[in-house]
Amino acid sequence: MLSPAELAAVRADFPLLARTLRDDRPLVYLDSGATSQKPDPVLDAEQDFYLQRNAAVHRGAHQLAEEATEAFEGARRLVAGLVGVDTDEIVWTSGATAAINLVAYAMSNATLGRGGEAARRFALQPGDEIVVTEAEHHANLVPWQELAARTGAVLRWFGVDNDGRLRIEDGVITPRTKVVAFTHASNVTGAISPVAEIVRRAREVGALTVLDACQSVPNMPVDLHAFDVDFAAFSAHKMLGPTGAGALYGRRELLAAMPPVTTGGSMVEVVTMSETTYAPPPQRFEAGTQPVAQIIAMGAAAQYLGELGMEGVWAHEQQLAGELLQITDIPGIRVIGPTDTTDRLAVVSFVVDGVHAHDVGQVLDDAGIAVRVGHHCAQPLHRRFGIAATARASASVYTTADEIATFRESLAGVRAFFGQA
């Protein structure tokens, strides 16, 4: 767990946290599940690239290009190290959404015969099955709906129980299942999925596994090799990094067999007027000019988290989850998701009796407290609980217990403000 001195030092690294809002109210930022704030080392890394070594990577023989390429590939090493994989198993993308779509569209291309014999393991036939969960962010649901529509595959899913935890039932994964895509931790309920059990069931039928690790990578130790998943996606902006960058992890042998999706410069070996041979991974999947500055800054974010120590970050996260869940003591507040700290993140969605989520968010904003309101890109999960929208408070490594106490105090007055108490 982070000591008070360590937490104070962390907060000092985040310049935006020091700003005040209207009426000179201090900012209480509880929307890190949507996007995180950025520490000075990340901001400095991006600026330093533009000030000192701005050049195209993998394309020049001059010193700037060499320095840019080393920083670019150095970021790959840092990100790979954070999540426990090998450097050449990290593919740069524009974010987690693009990473998941890359896998889905590669499977579509394989179904069309692209990639040759090696890619046949990714091909789908009518009646094959794609399994997802009711807890998915749209980014890990809609691409698989599209893949099913293009290939004739059938979409199946695991539901959730009344606490928002996955119900891992027999008969959902079958011998026809070809891919199982699931979240590591829900961006609505904070519930952590039973990764080992899902992967075991997928392995028994030879299905590929795709993990959405957006919420987990910033907040808890993640070892993708130990998880034994085939692919995983996560974004920079949720892990203290910039927008516009993300990563796809893929097993080396799977990336080597997978056909490309986006084609163009930088991902080729030989091009003639009639055909092209493609570079090996990860370059095969990194067509065109990459967001170099943002990727370097993502590497700086990975280094920052690694130096803090993810075990300590996770202990802090669990403490904050307990602080957030104390809102269940406020009359008229209902948490959507687990109400205990077991296997959950400090991501707490809730409804206030008689008050719309957007109105809740406005009252909190007037107090300087930033939360998310809406369906959080998870409409099916909200529909499961019979609600259209929730308010969501989500913490990060820089969040304090005092901030959450301020949030609870303001939340306690919401119903009275609207004449509901």
From TrEMBL:
Enzymatic reactions: (sulfur carrier)-H + L-cysteine = (sulfur carrier)-SH + L-alanine
Family: Belongs to the class-V pyridoxal-phosphate-dependent aminotransferase family. Csd subfamily.
GO molecular function terms listed in the Swiss-Prot or TrEMBL record: cysteine desulfurase activity; lyase activity; pyridoxal phosphate binding
EC number(s) reported in the record: 2.8.1.7
Keyword match Transferase: yes
PANTHER family the record matches: CYSTEINE DESULFURASE, CYSTEINE DESULFURASE 1, CHLOROPLASTIC
NCBIfam families recorded: sufS (TIGR01979)
CDD domains: SufS_like
Protein name (Swiss-Prot/TrEMBL): Cysteine desulfurase
Single Gene Ontology BP annotation: cysteine metabolic process
Key words of the record: Lyase, Pyridoxal phosphate, Transferase
Known function: Catalyzes the removal of elemental sulfur and selenium atoms from L-cysteine, L-cystine, L-selenocysteine, and L-selenocystine to produce L-alanine.
